[in-house]
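During the reporting period the student researcher (J.K.) took over the structure-prediction task from the postdoctoral fellow and processed the backlog of single-chain submissions. One of the processed entries is reproduced below for the supervisory committee.
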Amino acid sequence: MGMAPKPPENTEQAQRIKRKLSIARALVLATYSGLLLMFTLLTLFKAEPNWPLWIVQVVPLLIFAPGLKRGYHRTYSWLCFVVLLYFTWAVTNTLSPLAYWRDYLAVALTVILFSSAIWPAAGANNGGSGKIATDRSLITTTALTARSKGPTP
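J.K. obtained the following structure tokens:
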């Protein structure tokens, strides 16, 4: 029962949307890589690395790598769900009296990752192909397609 998005009124508005999507995608990739790098480096530099823990931390994130590379909006949506688990873990550790700097870093990375991934996941799909709309024709086509379909029951 939501309203269909309005098509961009001019080229400037379409360029602004494209710029925001590019920034959001860059932030997602940076924070995603940061989480993977943090987990890997913390495991490598321990006196006795805990490889099973590393696998549990890294594999769920690596599942999203192909979809992020291709720019599928569903990947961004599912990544948001999974990042909430990492956020919960990080906040729980941060509130502990034995909190380390890595816990605060994990909270910051997960908040930025979630916040930047939600925008492409929620508002920038191109009406069914699954890829993020990044040019004016796709954005306009998406808005017009959504209007022609009408509200969902």
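The committee noted the following: The longest helix spans residues 11-44.
J.K. will present the remaining backlog at the next meeting.
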